[in-house]
Write a structure and sequence with these properties.
This protein is α+β, with helices and mostly antiparallel strands. The protein is 38% helix and 20% strand. Strands 5-6-1-7-8 form a five-stranded mixed β-sheet. Strands 9-12-10-11 form a four-stranded antiparallel β-sheet. The mean pLDDT is 88.
């Protein structure tokens, strides 16, 4: 039986999330900014039509913002994560196997679905359901391989006549589309690879599909050889229906302004430690190695520079925030130096273990705190409920080092007090 994949991709996801609760901005150009409101990380279709590029610093486009009435938003991660979860839940109800590829993309396994319903009809039904139930528009590309599904999704977004759903199961249609697609738009083909391919006369996706797989492997890599085979309808990439276990967890942010106060920097480290520990418990893992880093801004060379990282190994793996706070605070005390304007800090957890797989030291008393699992479970439950927040005193009560987020929209879907009001 021939494999069938569908890639469901949310259109301009961050910008769409911001517009969803602001119907007055339906046709208004909108950009979403990176941490500390620094650069453009998402654009609505209206902004793309104006020719503004991704990653451009916002201070460089102030004239365009005023001229075209562009509305700016700070990144609202809580809103995006919640709406992503709603979209993915719907997708998972429609297919037996789903791989959530990113916050706004998911692959569906539709193998055999065409025995029951036409694939194009099915794709339109999924799109309509996601649109109706969440308000987020999606594009859907259907093809016999994941790489071709990516191309089909590209066409679904680029050509309005498709209705945002493209069925690319037919080989003739595949070749016609590939002839129109630049090789740089093929999934997994980066800038340097594109330059090397063009030097060999490979300019379009069709040129790459017609290349000799063995020569591509010898001249590039086995990964690009798989891409060539996928472009020819040979499925080499299966769904990863079980998310790979993370090898490390990093929690860090650039500060909204330079930090010179030791206690403020210490509180930031505590905050990042708490967040990293929460993520660790979400992965259902324990960690043994903890690292902390602090650094000044490399973009201000006229100022004294300092960048340092230190790690420590715990006596036994843990996911208890209290254990991790003790270690990161001890590392911080060794790292900190007076006289610097700190721009960024962070915490990294590594060397993960599964619960029950830890070999205790026979000659060392256990360092595990009593009722640790129950206590951390209660803390996480309260913090995830949206009804309250439990935090550790070492995090402080006034985060003066917080990110700059002057254009932050309300948490429409995760905080009762910020629900939209209709009068």
């Amino acid at each position: 039986m021939q494999t069938v994949f569908a890639l469901v991709d949310c259109n301009n996801f961050y910008a769409s999330c911001e517009k969803l609760f602001r119907p007055d901005l339906k046709h208004t150009p909108v950009v979403v900014l990176s941490n500390n409101d620094g650069c453009v990380v998402a654009r609505s279709k209206e902004v793309k039509a104006l020719g503004l590029k991704m990653a451009v610093p916002v201070f460089q486009i102030q004239d365009e913002i005023r001229k075209h009435g562009i509305v700016c938003f700070s990144s609202n991660y809580a809103l995006y994560a919640d709406l992503s979860n709603r979209v993915m839940t719907i997708i998972e109800e429609e297919a037996p196997r789903v791989e959530v590829y990113s916050i706004d993309e998911a692959f569906m396994d539709l193998t055999g679905v065409d025995h029951v319903v036409d694939l194009l009809t099915f794709g339109k039904q999924v799109k309509a359901k996601v649109d109706k139930w969440t308000g987020i528009a999606v594009g859907i590309g259907i093809a016999p391989t994941k790489t071709l599904a990516k191309l089909a999704n590209h066409a679904a977004k680029k050509y309005p006549a498709t209705g945002s759903v493209v069925n690319l199961m037919d080989s003739d249609r595949q070749r016609r589309l590939m002839a129109l697609v630049d090789v740089s738009d093929v999934w997994g083909v980066g800038r340097r690879t594109t330059e090397k391919l063009r030097a060999k006369g490979i300019h379009t996706a069709l040129d790459l599909a017609d290349a000799n797989p063995k020569e591509i492997r010898a001249g590039f890599s086995v990964v690009l050889e798989r891409t060539v085979r996928e472009l020819n309808g040979v499925s080499c990439l299966d769904l990863e229906s079980i998310r790979p276990t993370k090898q490390q967890i990093i929690c860090s942010r650039s500060f909204g302004h330079k930090v010179t106060d030791k206690q403020a920097l210490r509180e930031a480290i505590a905050k990042y430690t708490t967040r990293a520990a929460e993520k660790l418990r979400g992965e259902q893992r324990l960690c043994r190695v903890v690292s902390v880093f602090v650094r000044t801004s490399p973009f201000i060379p006229s100022e004294p520079q300092y960048s340092q990282t230190q790690s420590a190994e715990l006596p036994s793996p843990t996911d208890d925030t209290r254990d991790l706070l003790e270690v990161t605070d001890a590392i911080f005390q060794q790292l900190y130096k007076e006289g610097f304007r700190y721009a960024k800090a962070g915490v990294m957890l590594a060397d993960f273990y599964e619960h029950g797989d830890v070999q205790e030291d026979l000659f060392r008393p256990s360092t595990n705190k009593a009722n640790s699992k129950a206590l951390m479970g209660v803390v996480d439950k309260i913090n995830h409920s949206g009804l309250g927040n439990v935090f550790f005193a070492s995090q402080g009560v006034s985060a003066q080092w917080s990110m700059k987020r002057e254009y932050l929209s309300p948490a429409y879907t995760t905080r009762w007090e910020e629900l939209p009001k209709v009068f």
